[in-house]
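To the structural biology subgroup,

Please find below the input and predicted structure for ABC transporter permease, which we are adding to the shared reference set this quarter. The sequence is reproduced verbatim from the submission form. If anyone notices a discrepancy with their own records, reply to this email rather than editing the shared folder directly, so we keep one authoritative version.
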Amino acid sequence: MLNFTMRRLLLAIPTLLFISLVIFLLLEASPGDPLGDVPLTVPPEVKEKMREALGLGQAWYIRYILWLKQFFWVEPLHWTDKLLGTYFSDGMQRIISFQSRSPVFDVIAQRVPQTLIVVGMSYIVGVMIAIPIGILSAYKQYSWFDQIGTFVSMVGFSMPTFFTGVVFIIIFGVKLQWFPSVYDTTHVVTDWGSFWVQVRQMIMPVTVLALYNAAQISRFMRASMLDNLGQDYVRTARAKGLGERKVVLKHVLRNSLIPVVTVIALGLPTVFGGAIITEQVFKVNGLGQLLISAIHANDIPMVLTLTFIFAILIIVFTLIADILYGVLDPRIRYD
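Predicted structure (tokenized):
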């Protein structure tokens, strides 16, 4: 397993470099100008100096190599200095956003907590709901519980989050006025009263995202359980006199989790990437909203950095899923 992990990590290096190059070239080829919002009254020579200050006067390959240096060398040194109190990165140019003129990683660090609180909590709730529903639906196939679970899952998976989000706002935010319809990102939890205010404003976006995630994962869980419940080893375990709970939860569930782990692991990067549509609906000032605003402003450093971080997370969590296969099923070996 260690050799497999090392091989995958070494293979990830050229893969990530290729991905970063593709993203950079796509952004370069995309229409739009980072200085497109500059008033027409600004003289051309001033506009050209602004372009030079943003580094847009250099060739694309020079800007790409500079970004690689900043991402893999300057930024890690900066955060090391911040953690240890050293000065290794003094005088080095960090990745700067065209839109805010602030270091990109500083802006991302400000938005990450909001995204993790809302999107992360919704993913945890969705997984905790989906796995029990999938197990019971498969074990009690065609029962009333299975029929209701199938109906709710199909509704949750087929309805887009922008639709369910608006419906929740109309019903619970406007008509009943149970929960605030706009998420207050400036709210700070200091006591129990402010804690419940935070919980109330999280309920609707978390519920919308959890319903969508649970619908998808529960269907995979049910299908995997049904596939394993009919296997010979299950009949053998029952014939040996093992209790039904032990057969289902120890033998069937462990094997059934293997494909579900893939779905869960590949969905985890979306927690860090943010829920773009839902964050827009509820005005959550997270990474998803940051990415949309950066795209609208043609903020190439911000878009490039965010999408590349998302690509890194996908590769990392795919590797974690492969390693978990060997943990869940001892028969799986990569060496």
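Summary notes: The chain has a mean pLDDT of 80. The chain has two domains: 42-97, 111-328.

Regards,
Lab coordination
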